[in-house]
């Protein structure tokens, strides 16, 4: 039996379909225990009528997480996570009118599960430990992204009314910068800051060469710059004080959550193997584990893991023309962590450095060479996880002394 499950905010549109594509039943079920009980009853009724209680139930749904999906997996159903882009393109194949409805999407998902289940990725059977690492690692990274966004907003505001601050402060989300901007949010107030006040903020932030830095900051704040009318400047000052308060909270929570990321990651059985990889510390390692998951059968080969990571190239061939291109559809969180690992590995692993240098010698730019290195490191990680062994520099790069193909 094949089931299409179109999830909305507070309900699920369900359609049951047999192997021939005939609709068996459909319903709109509420979210939660009540809806799940009714779904089990619908499926059970169909099995009772058919007299085959051992038949497999395959469910197509456009998400791979949440309590509803966890309950489907726990019930023993084969749950296929359909990428929304795949679903949209399959919907276009079924009709050209552009019409869309929740019930229609449920029918489409059931039909996808019936005809293309061999090409769809089952929901990974990750452990509860890996799910816990994913929760804290993703939240930690999201807070970092939010801090970056708010820092850019602060930068744009300062550029519009207080350009001297951009000259005086290199790191806008640093504790000393936020303290001084909160103390003197307008150009007029900043010119009255004493070296003693600036030095005290720098000392609390544990800066070096406090006297020289304080003098440079004071000089930059007192230099002449274009400005805004007083009333406009006051409005900008009020707005950046709000941004400063948000940034202070975000910085505190990023540090707090980093400790949680390290703690949860350290409890995972694969933490030692992942941490042994060049360029992977507890935070980056947690992000890699979170996005790959720990289902032992999810990635049959190293190539499958590389394809999921988005580090392996895609090939487009037509006639005599053949080109290899980077994958631009990928898990943003995972590729971000893997590229950061590759960059750090250049300083930690002689083999990684030599591999990168060979790519550059072949004419590859920095980013393509770094992506190829990340691709190779994913293969090494896959081998270590599959065999349960720690990273070894000599073993990892022994087969690539001459052949540097990705």
List the helices and strands and how they pair.
Layout: E1 2-7, E2 11-17, E3 23-30, H1 33-50, E4 58-61, H2 67-74, E5 78-81, H3 84-94, H4 102-115, E6 121-122, H5 128-161, H6 163-168, H7 175-183, H8 187-191, H9 195-204, H10 210-222, H11 230-266, H12 271-275, H13 282-292, H14 302-309, E7 314-318, E8 321-325, H15 332-348, H16 350-361, H17 366-387, H18 393-397
Overview in brief:
Helices cover 60% and strands 10% of the residues. It is α/β, with parallel strands linked by helices and 406 residues long.
Helix/strand-derived category reads alpha/beta
Specify the number of helices: 18
Q: What does the main sheet amount to?
A: 6 strands, mixed
Q: H/E series, N to C?
A: EEEHEHEHHEHHHHHHHHHHEEHHHH
Q: What topology, given as strand order, has the largest sheet?
A: 3-2-1-4-5-6
3D shape:
globular
C-alpha end-to-end distance: 41 Å
| Strand proportion | 5-15%
What does this structure look like?
The protein is an alpha/beta fold. It has 18 helices and 8 strands. The protein has helices at 33-50, 67-74, 84-94, 102-115, 128-161, 163-168, 175-183, 187-191, 195-204, 210-222, 230-266, 271-275, 282-292, 302-309, 332-348, 350-361, 366-387, 393-397; strands spanning 2-7, 11-17, 23-30, 58-61, 78-81, 121-122, 314-318, 321-325. It has a 6-stranded mixed beta sheet. Strands 7-8 form a two-stranded antiparallel sheet. Helix 2 (67-74) links the parallel strand 4 (58-61) and strand 5.
């Amino acid at each position: 039996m094949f089931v299409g499950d179109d999830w909305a905010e507070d309900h699920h549109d369900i359609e049951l379909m047999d192997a021939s594509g005939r609709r068996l039943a459909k319903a709109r079920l509420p979210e939660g225990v009540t809806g799940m009980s009714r779904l089990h009853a619908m499926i059970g009724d169909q099995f009772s009528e058919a007299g085959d209680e051992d038949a497999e139930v395959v469910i197509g749904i456009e998400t791979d997480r949440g309590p509803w999906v966890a309950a489907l997996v726990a019930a023993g159903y084969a749950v296929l996570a359909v990428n929304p882009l795949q679903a949209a393109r399959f919907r276009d194949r079924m009709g050209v009118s552009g019409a869309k409805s929740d019930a229609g999407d449920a029918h489409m998902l059931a039909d996808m599960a019936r005809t293309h289940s061999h090409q769809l990725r089952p929901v990974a059977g990750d452990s509860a430990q890996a799910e816990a690492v994913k929760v804290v690692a993703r939240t930690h990274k999201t807070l970092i992204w939010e801090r970056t966004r708010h820092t850019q907003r602060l930068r744009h505001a300062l550029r519009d009314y207080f350009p001297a601050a951009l000259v005086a402060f290199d790191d806008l989300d640093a504790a000393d910068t936020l303290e001084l901007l909160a103390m003197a949010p307008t150009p007029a107030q900043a010119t009255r800051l004493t070296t003693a006040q600036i030095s005290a903020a720098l000392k609390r932030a544990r800066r070096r060469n406090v006297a020289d830095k304080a003098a440079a900051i004071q000089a930059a704040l007192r230099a002449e710059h274009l400005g805004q009318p007083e009333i406009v400047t006051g409005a900008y000052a009020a707005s950046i004080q709000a941004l400063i308060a948000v940034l202070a909270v975000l910085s505190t929570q990023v540090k707090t959550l980093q400790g949680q990321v390290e703690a949860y990651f350290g409890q995972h059985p694969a933490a030692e193997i992942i941490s042994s990889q060049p360029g992977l510390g507890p935070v980056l390692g947690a992000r890699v584990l979170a996005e790959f998951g720990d289902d032992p059968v999810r990635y049959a080969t190293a190539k499958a893991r590389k394809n999921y990571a988005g580090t392996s190239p895609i090939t487009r061939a037509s006639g005599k023309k053949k080109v290899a291109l980077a994958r631009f559809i990928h898990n943003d969180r995972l590729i971000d962590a893997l590229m950061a690992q590759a960059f750090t590995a250049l300083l930690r692993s002689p083999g990684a450095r030599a591999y990168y240098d060979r790519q550059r010698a072949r004419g590859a730019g920095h980013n393509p060479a770094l992506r190829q290195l990340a691709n190779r490191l994913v293969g090494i990680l896959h081998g270590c996880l599959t065999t349960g062994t720690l990273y070894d520099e000599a073993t990892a790069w022994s087969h690539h002394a001459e052949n540097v193909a990705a």
